[in-house]
Amino acid sequence: MDKKTIVVYFSATGTTKDVAKRIAQITGADLQEIMPQQPYTAADLNWNDKNSRSSVEMANPKSRPAIQSFEKDMRKYDVIFIGYPIWWDLAPTVVNTFIENHRLKGKTVIPFATSGGSTIQNSVVQLKSAYPDIIWKEGKLLNHPSDSTLSQWIEALGL
Fold first, then answer.
1. Residue 56 φ then ψ, to 5°
2. Mean pLDDT across the chain
């Protein structure tokens, strides 16, 4: 890959983190975690509780949970893989915080997600609609992918 690449991810339980690390390893990309200022607890992630933190955030489209500062300067990267778990058929609002805190206009962004039961499609549609100045590539749901599946997907992106 000739372009400067980074894998940025938010992972509440470690599943997305594992996939992100493998993508970074395969591509030789840098790796950066989106870390909320206030980490999510198990109670925060209880999607069956309409008053849990994640439920309240996802019910409010304007929610932008604060995130910790990044070590990496996003201006240095041409290609950004962005990974997240699917929450309520969407990217968690902390992902929007990341996108809005870093100038990604004109950058190539490749979404990937993990989910227990949803697809990635609606989250990508919503991200593309909210951030039309980003060059979005084909996203992929990556639940426990093999290295060969990851390599084939990355190669097909034609970066």
1. -65, -45
2. 94
Helix 15-27 vs helix 147-156: crossing angle, to nearest 10: 60
Assess contact for 104 and 8: CB atoms under 8 A. Answer: no
* pTM exceeds 0.85, yes or no: yes
Query: Could you give the 3-state DSSP secondary structure of residue 125?
Result: helix
Distance CA 20, CA 112 (A): 9
SS3 87: strand
DSSP state of 94: H
Pairing state between β 140-141 and 30-33: unpaired
Confidence of residue 1 (pLDDT cuts 50, 70, 90): low
Write down the residue that tokens 């949970």 correspond to: 65
